[in-house]
Specification:
single chain; 203 residues; mainly alpha; two-stranded antiparallel sheet; 2 strands; 3% strand
Length: 203
């Protein structure tokens, strides 16, 4: 197997082990999961730390998430489209959260800062892609599309974090419903009363 493919295969088996075991995972465990000899790891990675850094870096790679967003059908009704977008975001966030929780604060502050800075372009690209998916329905929103995206990101982040939610995560359907009820104009129901265009006058 070419070195690049071997690296990718080792990273793929390392990620779930890292999420379960944190940095306590051993190269022997990784080799067993990959079905290779332990020495094979050191033919493509200098040491365990390099392998773990490479695995963590893939979590922040925007390409898989952008590809998933590209597969969302832009002709779907707004509610269904927003649910599918939220599911994509949740999958990405859950991988990140589980990894961070498993690894704790083992990285030095400067390493955390470097990872955060490196992730910013990826983060911006994902939000931009979501904005494009929601733009056709801009007339249904009482706020700019960029604000809808911001609210979706904030609620999905909080509603998908195992610690913030005490383990009771919001579903993609719940998140989408809360976002739409908060930004969509027209007639909506609030506390048993219908209101027009976001006002508080009972109909």
């Amino acid at each position: 197997m070419p070195a690049a493919e071997r690296r990718a295969a080792l990273i793929a088996v390392t990620l779930p082990l890292l999420a379960r075991r944190g940095t306590r995972v051993t190269t022997r465990e990784i080799a067993e999961a990959a079905g290779v000899a332990e020495g094979t790891i050191f033919r493509v990675f200098h040491d365990k730390e390099e392998l773990l850094r490479a695995a963590v870096a893939t979590v922040f790679d925007p390409a898989p998430t952008l590809a998933e967003l590209d597969r969302v059908d832009a002709t779907l009704p707004l509610e269904r489209r927003l649910v599918e977008i939220t599911e994509v975001l949740q999958r990405r966030l859950l991988v990140v959260f589980n990894l961070m929780i498993a690894c704790g604060m083992s990285a030095p502050p400067e390493e955390i800062e470097r990872q955060r800075d490196a992730a910013q372009p990826a983060h911006a690209a994902i939000l931009d892609r979501i904005g494009h998916l929601l733009a056709p329905d801009r007339d249904q929103f009482r706020v700019p599309v960029s604000e809808v995206v911001r609210l979706l990101r904030l609620l999905t982040f909080a509603g998908s974090h195992p610690l913030i939610t005490d383990g009771d995560l919001l579903t993609a359907e719940q998140i989408a419903a809360v976002v739409l009820d908060g930004v969509r104009g027209g007639t909506r129901r609030v506390a048993g009363h219908q209101t027009e265009n976001g006002g508080d006058r009972p109909c």
